Amino acid sequence: MVTAELALAFPAVILVLALSLTGLTLGIDQLRCEDAARVAARAASRGEPAAAVSAAASARAPEGSTVRVTPGPVSVLVEVTGPARIRLLPSLPSASAEAQARWEPGAQP
Length: 109
Fold this sequence. Notes:
3 strands; 18% strand
C-alpha cells in the first residue's frame, strides 16, 4: 500500500521541485541583469569607453546577455537582456533590466 502511494506522490514532488528551480533560475538571472545594468550605467555616466561599459555589464550579467547603451542629452540608459533559457514554463519571459544615470560633470558626450 505504501509503495503505491509513494509511486503516485514521487512524480508530483519532482514536478514541484523542477518548477521551483525554474522560478529560482529566472529570479537569479533577473537580479544579475539588474546589477549589470546599474554597474554599466554608472560606468557610462562617468565617461568610460564603450568597451569598458560593455565589459562591466557582461561580467555581471548572465552568460549570453545583450547590452545596449543609449546616450541621451541628460543621462545614459543601459538595457541588459538575458538569454532565453529552456524552462518548464515557456510562458515565463527572459530576464531583462534597464538603468539610467545622469551624466557626471564633464563626461557628457
